[in-house]
Amino acid sequence: MAAPQVLIVGAGPTGLVLALRLRYHGVPIRIVDHHSGPGQASRAMAVHARTLEFYEQLGLAQEMVDLGIVMNAMHLWDQGRLMADVPIGNFGRDLSPFPFVLSYPQDDHERFLVEKLRYSGVVVEWDTELVGFEDDGERVRATLRKGSREETCEVAYLCGCDGAHSAVRHGLKLDFAGGAYEQTFYVADVHAMGAATATGGVNMCLNVKDFCLVLPIRSTGMQRLIGIIPDEVKSRENITFDDIRPITERLFGLRVNQVNWFSTYRVHHRVAEHFGQGRAFIAGDAAHIHSPAGGQGMNTGIGDAVNLSWKLAHVLQGRADASLLATYEPERIAFARTLVATTDRAFQIMVKRDLAGRFFRTVLLPYVLPQMFHLRTVRRWMFKTLSQIRITYRGSALSAGMAGDVAGGDRLPWDGVGGSDNFEPLMSLDWQIQVYGDAEATLKNAAAERGIALHVFAWTSMAEKAGLKRDALYLVRPDGHVGLAHPTQDVTVLDHYLAARGITMGTRLSS
Asked: What is the rounded distance in angstroms from the CA atom of residue 359 to the CA atom of residue 363?
């Protein structure tokens, strides 16, 4: 393999997805991590639809779905009594090819990605620490340490996907403003018996003062418990599972027979002041951390990696000016700030013991939400919010125009029920034009001359419901977001869009 052009620090999901996508684009990379291997006690469980759509571009989504467990329902408990069921198994129907929430623990997730990366010819360098780096404007020289040995690695770009205590973020001297929640969380893998272990979904307690989730793990047959250390034991030192066992068992009517591992941790809410500087970038927890509400953290980091990967590839392969990389921060930091604010509000109302919190947990969740979930508009709103398919880059320098309800910057709506699937061509990870209806000869000729793939889909009622416009031109980015949406097939508008952004089409280079 050619000399690495990108050094990725951190082999969690964010760094691994960045590495995989860069490899697909033909960019030689190197990835290091100071840990000895993939995580053993991770907390993230939810894999949302937008992440699975990104994995589908790599041909990996169905394999991951088969390894995980589709959450068919959310089961609400109070003191060992099942209070209500909220069916979420197919609540995003017609919105995504993955209309559900997948339960797949981060430790298994990381091992899955490590293996796929190995198949691509890249082995993660474990026990390797970033000591420091220098950016001279032309290259980045990073000093790496493994054991007692140090070496210098010279690359075009450095990407810090190295978590909340990011060495790359510290090296850039970026502020990481925010704070920590007062609650201490716990996470455990246990073998347990009881009704909550046979539900095939996510179990949540509704207790006025307690918060805990129980989720199944297919790979081990274990249950993962995630919750807040109860008041009765939070003042103890060196808390073990036995300290919380009686309370946790009572919440769900469980009997825990075996504890695989147990850990406690604090949760922060922070966003870095910038997501990059010069030739160094940060992504995932290195750039933003927030409450566990909605299981958004890991999925957001993966979204960062997808956004950054194709832009790095384009610049390195001469298909775009370096200014393209300036669009990474504004596109991702706006969502990160919004996410921190919204998950903070959601978390506070879930755990606070004031009147609003008590009303939410004891009335809205068990009695109102199950009834509201029968409404299609409520199901669709909840799916769009959780799944991250609502993320839009409207206002970005890469976004232009509007056709139907779809604007430049929006995720391309899915049109794949009962016919051809408009997401299948996205596996090219390259720019493409999509038309729903008929493509004019001038557009066909222009696409061929410019080396842009043109995909024409039949006009359907689903395309109309998705907000697409018949016979409009949609120029789709490598990450599945619309760059240009134009109501007519005006080739001059297409040429102006590409020229103004310095983007050229052509065959992807290989390493």
From this structure: 5
